[in-house]
Write a structure and sequence with these properties.
alpha/beta; Dihydrodipicolinate Reductase, domain 2; six-stranded parallel β-sheet; 11 helices; 26% strand; globular; binds nicotinamide-adenine-dinucleotide
Length: 372
Amino acid sequence: MMRKLGVGLIGTGFMGKAHAMAWRSAASFSGEVQPVLISVADIDGVAAENAAAKYGFQRWTSKWQDLIDDPEIDVISITSPNRFHAEQSLAALAAGKHVHCEKPLAPNSDIAEQMYRAAEKAGVVTQVGFNYIKNPLLKHAQTLIAEGEIGEITGFRGIHAEDFMVSPQVPWSWRLDPTGGAGAVADLGSHILGIARFLLGPVTELFADLDTVVKQRPERAGSSVMKSVEVDDIARLTVRFARGCAGYIEANWVASGHKMQLGFEVTGTQGSLIFNQERFNELQLFRFDKNEASNGFRTIVAGPDHAPYGLFCPAPGHQIGFNDLKTIEILEFIESIQSGKAAGPDFKEAYEIQRLVDASLMSSRERTWVSL
Ligand SMILES: NC(=O)c1ccc[n+]([C@@H]2O[C@H](COP(=O)([O-])OP(=O)(O)OC[C@H]3O[C@@H](n4cnc5c(N)ncnc54)[C@H](O)[C@@H]3O)[C@@H](O)[C@H]2O)c1
């Protein structure tokens, strides 16, 4: 029997749009549980009204609390700036609603812990927007590693580098607001730290060096009044995994020329894997060939053999896109609501990722290794 799942969305910016599109396309794939777009909230009422008209929400509001009080809403999707995630999530959980929240979950791991404990107490389903992990080829990479296809793992090199903050004229914004947490290490680092955990398991120790390259920025676009920057632009980490191997991780939002270098290399005794989000329908696999002269990486191209690619397209190599990853995330969230089994990354996993972000700040400040 078809069951309706009322959706309330908070925020209508970059991620608000991505969530709205994902909920809409999830409605065309999901079976028994059908998402229905009930209401959208944004502190900017005009933006909320426009979003309601564009994406097909039944109503809009400039007060996110209206969504919490709305009995037709079962799920809250949170895409506001980081410093609002906790207040909005905790209110939704207290009202017994399922919560899908953007990353990073919270400004620090103490607040993230409160959030995951509140979710456990509420007995509802949570998920956090680490959409890149939903790439079918990352699942394949995880399986290849787990099945020993590249031998014993000897190292990890991970990076999330973009260049959207490189110009000193990029104005101050919520991304630089220390009350929302750290800088690049939280914004981008949380993605690659999450991927490192997804592929290789827990990190037990790390050493980090954080750098603020652009020391001040215009208070707002075009302003000559400058405001100092207190968060990091670049984080360089050395990490040790519980499984015994070690690696390097970099988060960098001033990496000139790089638009979406979210990538990794995993090396093993019998092979290696290379991935880069800029070509995310491809995974490079190296395995030693009997004939030395034929050694080399080969490209695995995404296709219906890598579920759930086939939901979007029956033909291999035709490629899925960024918003499809968000749809996969939302579909898994709906499945979890149906089955009660966590699809993740849930609030607990996001708390574990946040602990690594906090440990990076501490390590850099104290110039020392930090154990988790
Ligand atoms: N998963 C990803 O790939 C990804 C990518 C970008 C951003 N994000 C995350 O998504 C969140 C939002 O980022 P964005 O790029 O969409 O930001 P954005 O600035 O484009 O949009 C934020 C929106 O929230 C609204 N807003 C601000 N304060 C609010 C409040 N108190 N209540 C309701 N609405 C409020 C703003 O008016 C705006 O519409 C952040 O946590 C960010 O880290 C995730």
